[in-house]
Write a structure and sequence with these properties.
five-stranded mixed β-sheet, mainly beta, single chain
């Protein structure tokens, strides 16, 4: 507009006067002369797009020179569509956004597109410019189409460096990116792309000379199985560069065209050499090492060290293995009764488990004490486990009446014999205190050390601990307070071990508690993966006179200390007056009755509830192990005997699935039960299951299985234990009847019922095996223990006759 104008404004009149000239709406506008002739306030934006000339590179709609380089006859641009910031289409020849950029050089690399025509019919040299018409490259070795993105387009132009074998023509010179020596063969089709004189031919190629003359990628694999000969050099070009997929180790590589077959032994099919290579299926007994592995098990398929007796080897020799598909069947193997297999290849498989009646003279092992003239109660308590971590079960025998080295009466002892537990022929007699590995001794008169024993891994170090009860021990809490001693698993010990040298001590809570009358290492009760310890104190009066008490001490990484049980108990159950909870035999190794993965707590009180006896059950899943205590009246389930004198709970054990239903059963002995005759005794089996029982029930009304004695005062139900003695995969039931009359009055007996044992009623006449005592009143069966005595991998039986001070070992090979 004109500078310093003086406007005369007149109402209704579009006329004003500037110094030197006058504007009027009636006058034509002369553009870009710095005067507004028609008084509309616009002298420099002819096309009205809001951008004045000369900022707007096309402002005069009548000036078509701007379109002089347009491409195509369908151009629709007009001046008002051209201004800085307008949308600019590439390759149409028009600079619609007025930025001055080359409309045919989108990637800005200084070279115009070679694939987009300009107005004069010419094209540039850039084969990739970001245009939809850009060249698409094809890798003729792989068939892959390679498109360059706009972001990378500037890297492709006539001045770019062009590396070989990437499939792209970066410098746009049209040369073959895959043929460096320009001999017409891509690198993937020839064996040397740097020498134009080396090309594929049909000429024969000598094998194994490390020179691939015909460029077929194979100089070392004549039979074409993908493997080259073991002797073929790894530095050969064929192996290292031309065909790296070939692998070495082929033990037969000649071509079948030349008649290359490997003859087989034992009338089995011959093999072509392409069927022989590392990893090939190796047919046993054909004498051909098809897998090229040295034929280690060519004639010993089960790798048990014995060749098959059905096939000849390369020398024409026969093996001695009668079942070459079963590694546990071969000469020298132990024959397993009842499995139907000839385990030792002797031609006489034992078809059934041993049945019948046997005496203690049939035992394969006799264990006695040193020969003291006074009673020691040898074998009243028995336990086994691997104390030294060598893989063999070790035996611990209690003798709580034994004098100690200072001649203190009833100090007690626990003898440890490291496994395998054997004795020399011909008498097979092992004398404790002569042959034992070590003996733990009580400290003072009437300590009764060894009254009960248990073994288990309380600290998860793969070595079992020995737990010894001494209910008469005098400790800081008083006379007969009792104590439990821990001997930590580890290196073998020898000689004598005094209580002062024990690894750990747990002391009873009060005088006359008789803490340690029962000790039981049980499976994990609280879910921390450690085995736990249950300890009884049958003399505790906290729940009433002679109520007794049970303490649960949780396993932990460190247990070596002298502590009061009140400090370490995580859970306590107090009996009811007269229960004597915690007496030996009333709590043994427990199992998971409800299948929740936690060991449940079951314990007996043989004189409770009007002398019928009772068994208490606490499901561990509902227990908070924080030192809390409950009364026996508050347990989950109370099971009582039917009649006074039944003595239910004299023995309680679990941890065994007798009926193969996947749940442990609870086994309860009641040696005072009458059935026809007085005191025949009974065993009641409560089946486990996911449903938890509760309340106060008579056990005989809900037990799934009942086993009875058959003679007056048999007292069946003591010495309860279980184990797979016939190695058939099913749990067997073992029980003692200490008052049974076998060959002599009250010589006692041990009875075995082979599993599985399903619901029903049985008696000792149904037992598969009866073991009879050797003398009148021997009380055989007072204690029984299943363990692998001789380390052969099979469960054996150890039975005690406490009146005779003898233990008898029956090996599973004889049962």
């Amino acid at each position: 507009m004109a500078p310093l104008s003086l406007l005369w404004l007149m109402s209704g009149c579009a006329t004003y006067v500037e110094w030197g000239y006058q504007c009027s709406a009636e006058l034509p506008e002369i553009w870009y002369d710095d005067r507004d002739q028609n008084c509309d306030g616009n002298d420099d934006d002819q096309d009205g797009d809001g951008v004045p000339f000369p900022v707007d590179c096309w402002d005069d709609p009548n000036d078509l020179r701007f379109l002089s380089e347009e491409v195509g006859a369908a151009q629709t641009l007009t001046a008002e569509l051209v201004y800085p910031g307008a949308e600019d289409a590439w390759y149409d020849g028009v600079d619609a956004n007025c930025d001055g950029a080359d409309d045919f050089d989108q990637d800005g690399d200084g070279f115009q597109s070679a694939n987009d025509w300009q107005a004069d019919g010419s094209v540039g040299e850039d084969c990739v410019d970001g245009s939809p018409n850009d060249q698409v490259f094809e890798d003729r070795c792989t068939g892959e189409l390679l498109t360059v993105t706009l972001a990378d387009a500037a890297t492709v132009n006539p001045d770019a460096e062009d590396p070989f074998y990437d499939g792209l023509d970066q410098n746009c010179d049209g040369s073959d990116d895959l043929d460096q020596d320009l001999d017409g063969f891509a690198y993937c089709h020839e064996c040397d792309d740097l020498d134009p004189d080396v090309i594929p031919t049909d000429e024969a190629d000598p094998w194994y000379d490390c020179d691939d003359q015909n460029c077929d990628g194979n100089d070392g694999d004549q039979d074409g199985d993908g493997f080259v000969r073991s002797a073929y050099m790894a530095t050969c070009k064929d192996w290292a560069t031309v065909n790296p997929g070939k692998r070495g180790g082929d033990c037969a590589d000649y071509s079948t065209d030349d008649g290359g077959l490997e003859p087989a032994l034992n009338s089995l099919p011959d093999l072509a050499t392409f069927e022989i290579y590392p990893g090939a299926e190796d047919i046993p007994y054909d004498g051909i090492d098809a897998a090229c592995d040295g034929d280690r098990y060519e004639f010993d398929v089960d790798a048990d060290g014995h060749d098959s007796d059905q096939h000849q080897d390369w020398e024409g020799q026969w093996g001695d293995d009668c079942d070459d598909n079963e590694p546990l069947t071969h000469p020298g193997q132990v024959e397993v009764c009842g499995d139907g297999a000839d385990n030792d290849c002797a031609g006489d498989p034992l078809e059934c488990s041993l049945q019948g009646t046997y005496g203690v003279t049939d035992a394969e092992l006799l264990i006695t004490s040193q020969g003291s003239t006074s009673a020691t109660r040898l074998g009243f308590a028995l336990a086994s486990g691997d104390l030294d971590g060598d893989g063999y079960e070790d035996l611990t025998v209690g003798a709580h009446y034994t004098k100690n080295a200072d001649e203190a009466s009833f100090a007690g002892a626990a003898y440890v014999v490291y496994g395998p537990v054997t004795a020399a022929s011909p008498d097979k007699h092992l004398v404790l205190a002569n042959d034992e590995s070590f003996v733990a001794q009580g400290a003072t008169t009437a300590s009764y050390l060894g009254y009960d024993l248990s073994v288990g891994d309380l600290n998860e170090d793969a070595k079992d601990e020995l737990v010894i009860g001494a209910p008469g021990a005098r400790v800081t809490s008083g006379v007969n307070a009792g104590a439990v001693y821990l001997v930590m698993g580890g290196a073998r010990r020898s000689g004598s071990l005094d209580v002062a040298d024990m690894s750990g001590v747990i002391e009873g809570s009060g005088a006359s508690d008789n803490f340690g009358t029962t000790v039981s290492v049980v499976e994990d009760m609280n879910g921390d993966r450690f085995q736990d310890l249950v300890i009884g104190a049958s003399g505790s009066d906290s729940g009433g006179d002679d109520a007794g008490k049970l303490y649960v001490v949780l396993g932990a990484p460190t247990l070596n200390a002298v502590q009061s049980v009140d400090q370490v108990a995580a859970f306590v159950v107090s009996g009811i007056a007269g229960d004597e909870v915690g007496k030996k035999g009333s709590t043994l190794r427990l199992g998971d009755l409800d299948g929740d993965g936690l060991a449940d707590l079951a314990f007996g009180a043989r004189v409770n509830y009007e002398a019928t006896g009772v068994v208490y059950l606490v499901y561990s899943g509902g227990v908070t192990f924080s030192g809390a205590g409950i009364s026996a009246s508050a347990v989950d389930l109370t099971l009582s005997g039917a009649l006074a004198g039944d003595a239910l709970g004299a023995a309680v054990t679990s941890g065994a699935d007798l009926d193969d239903d996947g749940y442990d059963e609870l086994l309860c002995g009641a040696p005072g039960v009458d059935r026809g005759d007085a005191g025949v005794g009974a065993i009641y089996v409560l089946s486990g299951g996911a449903t938890q029982r509760s309340g106060h029930l008579t056990l005989s009304t809900i037990s799934s299985t009942e086993v009875f004695g058959d003679g007056s005062q048999d007292a069946l139900g003591l010495g309860l234990t279980t184990g797979d003695l016939d190695a058939d995969g099913h749990i067997d039931l073992i029980a003692g009847a200490t008052g049974h009359d076998g060959d002599k009055t009250d010589d006692g007996g041990v009875f075995l019922w082979y599993g599985p044992i399903y619901a029903g009623t049985y008696d000792i006449q149904d037992a598969a095996i009866e073991l009879r005592g050797g003398s009148t009143g021997s009380t055989l069966g007072a204690s029984n223990l299943s363990l692998d005595l001789n380390g052969d991998g099979f469960t054996d039986l150890l039975s005690g006759a406490t009146a005779d001070e003898e233990l008898y070992g029956f090996l599973s090979g004889g049962l």
